[in-house]
Queue: 3 jobs
Job 1
Amino acid sequence: MDEETLREALARYRDAGGPSYEEFARGGGIDRPGGSELSYSRFFREFLVPNRPCVLSGSVTAAQPAPEVWRPSSNGDGFPKIHHRFSDAVVPVANCDVQEYNANPKESLTLSEYLSYWRERRAHGHTSPRGCLYLKDWHMHRDFPDHGVYSTPLFFRSDWLNEYWDSIRLDDYRFVYMGPKGSCWSANLCGRKRWLLFPPGEEAALRDRAGSLAYDVLSPALRDPQLYPGAAQSHSPIEVIQEPGEVLFVPSGWYHQVHNLEDTISVNHNWLNGCNVDTVWRFLRAELSAVQDEIGEWRDSMADWHQHCQVMMKSCTGMDFSQFYVFLETIARNRMEWLDSGLEDPGPGGAQGSELGRRQAMFDLHRVGAALESLLADADFTRLEVDSPGLGSSPGGLLREVREVADSALT
């Protein structure tokens, strides 16, 4: 990241002006920046900070997976190299032909069993009595950390979420998806996908009277105002065809639906960083408020009512306020440690999370500081700070330390 981009980004967040999506409501399309001239600074400035989607070609990302591993055989025998590497891996598989509670039921198969099903389905004209099975949310990177079959593009390496989960060795948010034609940032390793995207706020028009999002945004039921009273006000989705080797950046809050146009393998990472940490914090606060409203009648009679609300929220979101603080502390410590080292370019094997350079670390620290400041001003968190012995260090002390290091690094 260059100096101009750093200062421009910090000024934008200080001004607290939210991104605008009016151009998409008027029918604007999604950019496809190409060529070797696309720098990280330009991507950061034009897409990450304003929360705008884009499609990157394989030549831009310079992070193609080992193609022979993912390539189907020419004789229709499936994916022999994938089978050889991971045949005994247990993978989650969803049945796209069955809907249960607005989702698809899942089962576990070995990858060998799934590839056998896929091969048979292709041989029978893309049909199977077992339905359309989609390998979904396989944590390949977590289960096989030394897989070496793909690397994260430079543009997406500021990834606080997976940096945190890697540090506590419990989970990750990196997924491999494999599925036949007709199944539902995504990097296409082979095959083509059709994406339908809605800018933040548009999803409200896709909710039924009970508040549930439509299972299929193309369903004729959306034209029924008795079922979906707001659908008439919605704009048409932005359509993107993702080709093999392309990477689609789907920003925070962009509701989307995906269809495989042919047999497809893709890698998807859920992530967050300094550009959207405020969005995550607003989401957590809204989720806690919803829980508090739901069980508000027991507020005075239930012991530890506030802590119970945190437990319920975590069961829905995967994180409560205490863990969000520990998450922020982890990123802050990593960045301060690296800045304190005095290195300008970490090079291979540099400190975790620092590979994008000193200015990225400075930006991250400023954004952690802003999130900590908002967290400390929240009454529900302040209550936990007093009651919960599980917090790593004094939140107020951490905020002062972050501000001091961030300000001195910027001058």
Job 2
Amino acid sequence: MNLNHWDKLYALSLEIENELKDVFASIDETAFYNQKKVLDAFREEQLSDADFMPGSGYGYDDRGRDKLERIYARVFGCEAALVRHQIVSGTHALTIGLFGLLRPGDTMLVVSGKPYDTLSDVIGLTNNEKNMGSLNNFGVNYQQIDLLPDGSFDYPAIEKALLDKPKMVYLQRSRGYADRPTLTPEGIGELVHYVKSRIRTYVVVDNCYGEFCRNAEPTHYGADLIIGSLIKNPGGGMAESGGYLAGTKEAIDLCSYRMSCPGLGNEVGAGLGQTKSMIKGLFFSPHVTAQALKTAVFAAAIFEKAGFDVSPKPFDTRNDIIQSIRFDKPEALIAFCRGIQSASPVDSHVVPEPWDMPGYNDPVIMAAGAFTQGSSIELSADGPIRPPYIAFLQGGLTYESGKLAILSTCNLMKEV
């Protein structure tokens, strides 16, 4: 199918949008539900202009910071939260959670297959891992159970592993760079019930890319801890850095001692003028997440019509903002990422090249013409240079800019 003509592409886009109108309406309905949930939390905590005053120094009694964390807890239906700009990435937030809850001799049971590449050094899974303070260095045991071919949990294997009473059952909601479905909040809830009915343990969920895609989060289904990044969904494109952990008070207290130090916990860490952008980001997040979801659905539809294998499919229920497109050859993956970069508002003149990124096992190409470095709620695309050469597209602050970028990329790609 030859799409290398702008007028034909635009006409095709109108046809696709007409086909997707019910999908888009469903996304808007979810955004409305989540926007009400966020607004109610703001009102219940009586957010005021005085809460935007920047804290400094130790950050004792930083009212804006503390109120933001209470708002997060309300939104995510849990007891407590840590929301800090000092958390430098999603991987950092996850590391705080892992080291906060696990002790030497404990076992971390992962039930969703191998976690993100960036966690390999944190856990101690890589051959080049040295004495850098990984979980393995501290005597924490690691056990992994892969998902079944259909993307569901392997309950017989999990039941057997639970006999060893792991301290933590860990799962990753999003697919990462794996070719598998994103986990649903309902499916996670079933796992939580299954585990909790058998042993006392922490159920921890890497929630990156999944916030506000559905009406409920894993904490609404009983997860002890969810973890994510503020330059993804919950930052709404406004937060310039940061991460969050939300869950039970017990889990959050333990994680706060890892975030700062024992005895200080969440009492320290000044806002330094970042609190307002984090609060605004949360307020915008349901709407911005909906824009990213529409961009992903549109990309799935147009590339599927062009003959590529996409996941999720255009009419599938979305559980995160990630859209994968399988190209089967490196040249097409690279061309796709370069097309997305060329249609970005920032650094559109830059030509992405695969490179050996810290924390990844293969060269990775990334297109990220974002206002905030590394922000993946802004339109971005990336993928490891390894078979089957899948591009992972995510983000889009506005659907219109996302649509333009997809059409521009199609127009530039000879393969489409």
Job 3
Amino acid sequence: MKNKAFDARSHAFSNSDSMLVDANIWLYLLGPASVSQTWASIYSGVFNRILSAGSLLSLDVLVLSEFINQFARLEMRRLQPGQYDFKAFRGSADFPPVARSIESQVNQILMVCRPVDHPFSEWRLSDLLNDFGTGAMDWNDQLITENCRKHGLALLTNDGDFTKGGISVFTANNRLLAACP
């Protein structure tokens, strides 16, 4: 089943909207300066409208994990160009300040989001694995979609791959908007 995409730039958010915020949005809002400033500006405006409307924001462990790991890897590439060994970066003197920055940003996320659990044991893993096996869906994206469905959440994302799953998606990604009218 296709997702239904709504343009986050023009949507009239309200306190009845409940959504999971994807890692790419958190990276635009709170990530290192190396992320796209154009998208950061767009989603900053969207996010301010969401907060002003009193919409319910949620966070799950996969999104948090993706945010933390991507933030750290972006900083590794900035601080140690050519370094591809993440474990070596974690052991370097450059890592502790990055970890403290990530901790600070995660605390900001936790101030505006309620955590939601993954009901992994309830899902039909054979169906998810079959979908994954077609190459049409990213594994984590499938799990995020399932979690949105389980908790009745829309998804705020800029990831153009979120076309399937039968959930509502808020985005400024024109490709996703065109794929899921």
